[in-house]
Amino acid sequence: MEMKKIAVIGAGVVGMTTAYRLSQLGHNVVIIDPELNQSKIPTGCRTASQASLGILMGNTFRRSSGRNWKLRQRSMALWPELIKELATFDKSLKLETPLIQLASDYKEMELMKRLCKERSHLGLKLLNEEMNQCLKPSWPKNQYRGIVSAHDGRVNPLKLLNCLRATLDKLKVKTISAKVISLSRYSHEEKTKWKIILENKKVLIKEFVIICSALGSQSLLKKIGYDKPIEAVLGQALHLTLKKDNSSWKNWPAVLTCNGINLVPLKENQVIVGATLEPGVKAKKVYLNKLLALNGLAPKWLKDASLNNNWYGIRARPLKEPAPILKTIETGLILNTAHYRNGILLAPACAEWVGNQIRAKLL
Ligand SMILES: Cc1cc2nc3c(=O)[nH]c(=O)nc-3n(C[C@H](O)[C@H](O)[C@H](O)COP(=O)(O)OP(=O)(O)OC[C@H]3O[C@@H](n4cnc5c(N)ncnc54)[C@H](O)[C@@H]3O)c2cc1C
C-alpha cells in the first residue's frame, strides 16, 4: 500500500492508538499534543485518558445491535492482541478480568437474566449467591443478582499510555509537543493537502489529518466551517487505602460495578472508586462525597478507608450526534474524537476504522 504522510492531533489513548495503527500499516505518522512531554501525572486535573479507570465493558452493553455494539465487540476482539504487543515495554500491562455488575433493582435483574441467556458465548453468566458471599472484604448482601462477565475488565490507563508512547518511539513515530492552532486546505501540484499551523508558528503539510483532540476538536473544526458542538462532562475518582485487616481482596473481580459506581481493587489494601458525572469543568466536593458514600451503599470497611489521592478529568460528549464522532468530513480529514465515557474501551476499534478509511481512499 502507498505510504501517506499523516498527522494525528491529540495524544490521549485514542490518538496514540490511532498513530500506532497507522504506523503499523506503513504510513509516515507524526503525533502532535502540547501534553506529550509532560513527565509527571498531575494531581487534581488530568487529561481524560490519565483520569480514566480503564474499564472495558464490552459484553455487558445493553443493546445488541447498532454501531456502538459493533465497535465494542470489535474492540473486545482487538484488546488481547494489542496488550500483548504493547506489553513488551511493561510486562505488568494486562487485561485484568472478570467484571461483576450488580443489579440495582428488579427490572435490571430481569434484563441481566436475559443478557446472560443471549450472551453465554461471550462469557456472561449470572452471579450466584455463593459468589456474592465469597467476596472478602464482603459486599453488602445484594437482594438482586448480577452479571459476571468473564472477558470484560480493565486495563491500567497509565501503564497503557506509557506503553503506547514507548511503542510509538520504537516505531519512530515523530512526536511534536505543541498545540495545533488551525488547519486549512493547501493546494500544490494539483494535489490537495492539509496545512497545520502550530502554536510556535511552525507549519506542517500533510496528506491526511486525523483529529483525536477530544474537547479541543471543536475549535479546530469551527475555523474550517464545521459545527461540532461538544460538551464537557467532568468525572472524579478516588484512590483509597483500606485498613490492613481488610486487605486480601479474596474472590474479588478486577472490577465491581454497582449503582453506576465502579470499584477497582488494587494490590494489598488499595482501591480506586469512580467516577462521577458532573456538568462543566469545575470539580465539586458534593459529587465527591456522594461517590465516597457510594450513593448510600458503602460498607463500613470502605467508609473507614483513608483518602490517598483524588483526581478528575473531562469527558468530551458530542451534543448533536452519538459518541464517538467517527467521520471523514473532507478528503484527507478524518475525525476520531469525542468518545465520552468509553474512549479507552473503543480506542482499538476506532483506530482500525481510521486505518480502513485511509486504505479505502487509496484503492
Ligand atoms: C474519571 C473518568 C473515568 C473514566 N473511565 C473510563 C473507563 O473506565 N473506561 C473507558 O473506556 N473510558 C473511561 N473514561 C473516558 C475516557 O477516559 C475517554 O473517553 C478517553 O480517555 C478519551 O481519550 P482521548 O484520547 O480522545 O482524549 P484525551 O485523553 O482527553 O486526549 C485528548 C488530547 O488532545 C490534546 N489536544 C486538545 N486540543 C489540542 C490541539 N489543539 N492540538 C493538539 N493537541 C490537542 C489534549 O492535550 C489531550 O492530550 C473516563 C473518563 C474520566 C474523566
| CATH class term of the largest domain | Alpha Beta
* Quaternary assembly: single chain
- Please name the CATH architecture of the largest domain: 3-Layer(bba) Sandwich
Major sheet summary line: 10 strands, mixed
| Share in helix | 25-40%
Helix run count: 10
Rounded average pLDDT: 93
Account of the 3D structure:
- With 363 residues, the protein is α/β, with parallel strands linked by helices.
- It has two domains: 5-78 and 158-228 and 319-362, 3-Layer(bba) Sandwich (FAD/NAD(P)-binding domain), CATH 3.50.50; 94-154 and 231-318, 2-Layer Sandwich (D-Amino Acid Oxidase, Chain A, domain 2).
- It has ten helices and 21 strands.
- A hairpin with a 4-residue loop joins β11 and β12.
- α1 (13-24) runs parallel beside α6 (157-170), α1 packs parallel to α10 and α3 (67-86) crosses α10 (343-362).
- It is globular.
- It starts with a strand and ends with a helix.
- Flavin-adenine dinucleotide is lined by residues 9-15, 32-35, 47-49, 51-55, 179-180, 212-214, 216, 220, 235, 237, 274-275, 313, 315, 339-345.
